[in-house]
TrEMBL record:
The chain crosses the membrane at residues 88-108, 128-144, 151-172, 178-200. Keywords: Membrane, Transcription, Transcription regulation, Transmembrane, Transmembrane helix. Residues 230-244 have a biased composition (Low complexity). InterPro entries: Anti_sigma_zinc_sf, Znf_put. It holds the Pfam family zf-HC2. Residues 210-251 are annotated as: Disordered. Residues 5-34 form the Putative zinc-finger domain. This is Putative anti-sigma-YlaC factor YlaD.
Length: 251
């Protein structure tokens, strides 16, 4: 590394103490390097203090891309009343679904096979009641813990899809009455509410992957017990992170 390179590095604040010491010794005995260093120092100061040239204003082009979309705003604090309302409505639908299950389990409900024998019809009704009770529990769980909405969607959607297709087939072949089909309406409404809550919840965040998007922490988490910060997080003092990097003052 030549003396000129060391002097240039010194002007940029990149030279080590030993390199600066050797460069100073060389400058004291070299007139050309001394003149070069003086001119380079003056030029460096002039460049650093000169006014910056005005550039194009890109505010209007950048800000629209940074503004959150309507869906992102609904996922934040602004959409909290809507999410709470959907959870209350889902809870009512779950109670209605549970009532339907009780009717099948206790006997007054609509028969699955009206013309079946007395030995098979009650058992089929019991199976149907058990399924309806399980679906009611799933809906109640999502109403209480909306962060689990996406996890319940595969089961609810597959069950409702298969059931809807079979109901349509049975209606066309006159194998089921309209009252029986209408008893499945709470499941369909519950599926729609769970799907909306899953969308408002936002994409799942997996451990080890950085969070993206506007959603951040779910404001609904504060209403759910056991979701607050742990003792280690609560006791962590401010300023315990890494210290900011010191910046070299400009000449």
């Amino acid at each position: 590394m030549t003396s000129v390179e060391i002097l240039s590095a010194e002007l940029d604040g990149a030279a080590t103490t030993e390199e600066r010491r050797r460069a100073r010794l060389h400058v004291d005995g070299c007139a050309s390097c001394r003149d070069w260093y003086r001119e380079a120092t003056a030029l460096t100061r002039a460049v650093r203090v000169m006014p910056a040239e005005p550039g194009p204003d890109v505010t209007e082009a950048v800000l629209p891309a940074l503004r959150p979309s309507r869906l992102d705003r609904l996922r934040g604090a602004r959409g909290r009343p809507l999410r709470l309302g959907l959870r209350w409505l889902l809870g009512l639908v779950a109670l209605l679904q549970l009532g339907t299950a009780v009717l099948y389990l206790t006997g007054p409900g609509v028969r699955v096979l009206p013309g079946a024998s007395h030995g098979t019809a009650p058992h089929v009704d019991h199976e149907t009641g058990a399924w309806n009770a399980a679906l009611a529990v799933a809906l109640v769980w999502v109403a209480l813990r909306s962060r689990h909405a996406a996890a319940q969607l595969p089961v609810l959607a597959s069950f409702t899809g298969v059931l809807g297709g079979l109901c349509l087939l049975d209606l066309l072949t006159d194998r089921v009455g309209l009252g029986r089909v209408l008893s499945h309406v709470p499941v369909l409404i519950g599926l729609a509410l769970v799907a909306v809550l899953a969308v408002l919840r936002g994409p799942e965040r997996f451990p080890g992957f950085p969070e993206s998007g506007y959603a951040g922490a779910d404001p609904d988490e504060a209403d759910e017990p056991g979701t607050g910060p742990g003792p280690a997080e609560a006791a962590e003092p401010e300023g315990s992170g890494p210290s900011p990097v010191a910046h070299r003052a400009s000449a």
